[in-house]
Amino acid sequence: YETGPPSSCSGPSDPLGKAPSPIEEWLTKETFEDLFPFSNLGWGPHPCFPYSYESFIIAARYFPQFGTESPNQEYSPRENSRRDLAAFFAHAVQETGENNAGLYLGGRSKKEATDCFYRGGFYNWFEGGPTSSFLDPKSPGYSPEDGEECMMGGRYCAESAELNHFFPCSKKEKEGKGKNKTTRMYTGCYFGRGAIQISYNYNYGMFQDWLNEQVGIQVDLLSHPNLVITKLDPPLALMASLWFYMTPQPPKPAMHDIVMGSWNSGEKNEEGGYKGPIFGPTSLIINNECNGEDEGNPGGPGESRRIKAFKWFCEYFGVSAGEDRRLTCKDMPVTLDMIPQKMSYQPDWSTTWKNQSCECAPATYGGMIPYFDPSFYPLRFVQYNGDNKKKCEDSMYSNPSIMDSSFAPLFAYFSIGAGCILVAAVMNRMRNKRNRLDE
Fold it and tell me: Could you tell me which residue ranges the Glycoside hydrolase family 19 catalytic domain spans (predicted)?
């Protein structure tokens, strides 16, 4: 596609100088390039493009648990390390791989076709690539910079009072290029980008918050979402994908924690054998897929190819993929969203009748500010609960429409010094008056 990578570039770099990961001791550049010869639209790993060995190892350094933990007794440290990478690579193959089923039709042996098929990972940069219908037909995704603008279908902007406060979409419009000057083009485009594609403004926003608040890399992805593909200092295309793989979003645990066995599947799932270090529920997390594995090759897209890819990478690394039944979530008794737990911080309405500042508390439904229940998530996430609670409480005062858009001006005025009690009284009085008028 097009002319390929530039003859020279500065390449990926790490502005924070993170220490090398133990992964680098066994995953060599030669191995990486053997695994992904068709990456970057077929040009192969290259430091001037989003996917390269150099970018991968820099990204891995920002996630010290990736490929280095061994918290279970079912597998050795060596096996856990390689199974973790196998799971990540398997999902990348399904999400953005070449997925060339024609390899099985060219007279090759089954093994030869399979070895080629699952070496097709890290192929696409953009959702719908290599020629993405979200982009201008004259710049359809053959260069990382093509993703700077998109048509309406690629905006992927979700809006609500809460979302507009935390993760507002960029509203900038531009004229189309050339003959398409009448076509509306947008710069606030949150369609899928990266190896395990992140999409929608809230995922871009949460990844941005992680970079800004927890890592110390200041970047505005809500205004400039294409930086996920073009920024190489540090390389965000692979960092965003690893962030999604490594980070729980209650009620969903991190895919990494499932593969490592560091998750609480609930009593009924444990009784059914869905516990410990398994692969199956990771497909439920990434795309709600639980259809099992097809018999044929390469089989249909979805969970089937994720399973087949995981088996292939495990075989390549010389480790066990595990019991076939637990490679799928098809027979899992209780889905993750049905396991009772508290998931997010929300306004605590019980405090509105007290002479004190408004507070937030864990709620049993999802939201933009996660609560990490200590019974379900590792300590490294539980430790963020204090900061998340404060973020929720600050948001009630900085943007009262999160609580009740009809009474936001009253809340903003009275909350300056009155605590929650007077605010609640005024809001309820006005609400009752409005209801009578409506009647």
Answer: 186-324
Torsion on CA atoms 150, 211, 53, 154, rounded to nearest 10 = -10
CA distance 100 to 130: 13
Length of the chain counted residue by residue: 439
- Is 141:132 a contact under the CB 8 Å cutoff? yes
327 to 176, 310, 360: CA distances (angstroms): 46, 9, 39
Distance of alpha carbon 401 from alpha carbon 421, whole angstroms: 18
User: What span, in angstroms and rounded, lies between the C-alpha atoms of 414 and 316?
Assistant: 64
Cβ-defined contacts of 109-118 (< 8 Å, 24+)? 110/297, 113/297, 114/297, 114/298, 114/312, 115/312, 117/297, 117/298, 118/93, 118/308, 118/309, 118/312, 118/313
* 269-300 confidence digits (pLDDT tens): 999 999 999 999 999 999 999 999 999 999 99
Asked if 391 and 213 count as a contact pair (C-beta separation under 8 A), the reply is no
What is the pTM assigned to this prediction? 0.91
Residue 383 class from Cβ within 10 Å (0-12 exposed, 13-18 middle, 19+ buried)?
A: exposed
More confident: 15 or 439: 15
CA angle 294, 299, 301 (to 5 degrees): 105
- Mean pLDDT score of the chain: 90
Q: For the purposes of burial, counting CB atoms within 10 Å of the CB of 304, is it exposed (0-12), middle (13-18) or buried (19 or more)? A: buried
Say how far apart CA 395 and CA 136 lie, in whole Å. 38
